[in-house]
Amino acid sequence: MIKWNARHNTRNNNEAKFGTFTNPSSSKQLRFSVKVGSQNDYSSGDEAQSLIPETSPQEDYSWVSVIIPFVFPALGGLLFGYDIGATSGATISLTSAELSGTSWFNLTAVQLGLVVSGSLYGALFGSLLVYPIADFLGRRRELIIAATLYLLGGLITGCAPGLGVLLVGRVLYGIGIGMAMHGAPLYIAETCPSQIRGTLVSLKELFIVLGILLGYLVGSFQIDAIGGWRYMYGISAPIALLMGIGMWILPPSPRWLLLRPAQGKGSVKEYKEKAVLALSKLRGRPPGDRVSEKQIEETFVTLKSSYADEESEGSLMEIFQGPSLKAFIIAGGLVLFQQITGQPSVLYYAGPILQSAGFSAAADATKVSVIIGLFKFVMTGVAVLKVDDLGRRPLLILGVSGLALSLFLLSAYYKFLGGFPLVAVASLLLYVGCYQISFGPISWLMVSEIFPLRTRGKGISLAVLTNFGSNALVTFAFSPLKEALGADNFFLLFGAIAVISLLFVVLIVPETKGLSLEEIESKLLK
Predict the structure, then answer these.
(1) CA–CA separation, 458 and 251 (whole Å)
(2) Cα–Cα distances in Å, from 88 out to 97, 114, 347, 428, 453?
(3) Strand 20-22 and strand 29-36: pairing?
(4) How far lies 391's CA from each of 34, 383, 464, 493, 510, in Å?
(5) Where do runs of H (alpha helix) occur along 391-455?
(6) Which helix or strand (DSSP H or E) is residue 61 part of?
(7) What is the rounded CA–CA span in Å between residue 442 and residue 84?
(8) Got the DSSP string for 249-312?
(9) Which residues neighbour 290 within 8 Å (Cβ) at sequence distance 6 or greater?
């Protein structure tokens, strides 16, 4: 008997308990104890609520009906991670006189920074673009557009005849990232059974890491090919096509269909009928079955009640007042330090760092990058399994301490340990492992918990913009700053920032483990 405790939130903040679930492929029973009102799953300004109200009885489902609506949206996260991993090897190939296959390989530090951070600037613009139109588009159409942008961006980048066209492709790909990172968690959470919603939404981070690993692997195989960077970027295109076809086949999110009439933007009867058909298709039931009709009716009643309670929504300026300001300092600080402790630079430039640290052959550097990607994948799994057992603060304090140590070791390597290339590898592994048990998953978990209900949507939107903006800035500044300061002083600077972030965690960030959203607001934000 495996006991699994999970916490979710609905806008009504009710509490419910589920009984046992028997895995159809196993004789073991999974026991679910779900407390509604402690945590919520959403992304980029929208709550990611399950289609089925938490107060309803436990839903029967087949694993096929769970996997398909999860995998195709999750490919949006995989393609985000793939861009990170592929860029690590592509920067080596693109700037090599022997391997580039171009006459414009001799890029300046600023030009290389634009190539690397182009997708991040696109993602920043995409996150700005999608917020006001997300409810109009719907999750499914948003993800189809994201897949199209991924496809165009990958093809244009891979076939680019010059730097200007390459940068256009990078920005288009990045806009796809911004839209996919908003739509994918919402679609997954709104279409999956409530009792496994937390697990599936958490696995999104694992798909991103899997994409990073895939990018490292492709880079390892293509690093010695002439024009290998074209293949590294271009291979994303067929994955994007698969994502687009999958999302085209899948129905719209039933909850989004109900959201339209709940907001007074459509016919109640028409959208209810569409929602019943969508839910029936998702669960593999006959069209318009009674079970789906009942679930849709219950969900619509809940949505109408929720929107009736939220007529006086918090204003933008309210985020900078009282409890909301305290929440934004915590959430904004976490996602800011997540980036300015060097995370995007270490990932995007893993290949060049290892090359300069003693692995002179490009192939050697990319192979070690694959090892780093595997380690990142394993440590992400550890974090997902342990965060509710150990709590947020212990993992943050332990992980950020390790980040600071690893960055000081990298600085020491460039200063006086140059004869020991394993120091660079060990430092990078320590950095990746500590990041994946701290800032990686926990920053966004804390963001989802800490904002008061009244300003949660706008607060999370600002946190997303802070994340992408600081990510793009740090990635762009890496090459020029490294050139100006030298690698030793540059990593020393990152280490000092990591120490400041550790003080921020110790002094400012509260422990939210086991607290309901109401308790967080009343006990921690007053």
Answers:
(1) 28
(2) 17, 14, 7, 14, 40
(3) antiparallel
(4) 18, 10, 23, 29, 10
(5) 392-416, 421-436, 439-450
(6) none
(7) 20
(8) HSPPPHHHHHHHHHTTSS-HHHHHHHHHHHHHHHTTPPTT-HHHHHHHHHHHHHHHHHHHHTSS
(9) none
Pairing of strands 29-36, 42-43: unpaired
CA 372 – CA 217 distance, rounded (Å): 11
The tally of CA atoms less than 13 A away on the side-chain side of residue 37 is 13
In whole angstroms, give the CA distance from residue 92 to residue 245.
33
- Among all chains, which residue has been given the structure tokens 């990058």? 369
pTM of the model: 0.70
Tokens representing 197 are: 């919603």
Largest CA distance in the chain: 73
pLDDT in tens, the chain (526 residues): 333 333 344 334 343 333 333 333 333 333 333 333 333 333 333 434 444 334 345 566 666 777 888 899 999 989 999 998 898 888 888 888 888 888 888 888 888 888 988 888 898 888 888 767 776 788 899 899 999 999 999 999 999 999 999 999 999 999 999 888 878 877 877 787 765 655 666 677 788 888 988 988 898 888 888 888 999 999 999 999 999 999 999 888 888 788 777 767 777 778 788 888 888 777 777 777 777 777 777 777 766 765 555 444 445 577 787 788 888 899 889 989 988 887 766 665 566 666 666 665 555 656 666 777 788 888 888 877 777 678 789 989 999 999 999 999 988 888 887 777 788 778 888 998 999 888 887 887 777 677 775 565 567 677 778 888 887 777 677 778 878 888 788 889 989 999 999 999 999 998 877 665 556 666 666 6
CB 182 within 8 A of CB 48: no
Q: How many CB atoms lie within 10 A of CB 500?
A: 13
Task: Report the half-sphere exposure of 440 (CA within 13 A, side-chain side).
Answer: 30
Exposure string over 439-454, b if 16+ CB within 10 A, otherwise e = bbbbbbbbbbbbbbbb
Which amino acid is located at 504 in the chain?
A: F
State CA 221 to chain mean position distance.
Answer: 26
* Cα-based angle 390, 379, 82 (whole degrees, multiple of 5): 135
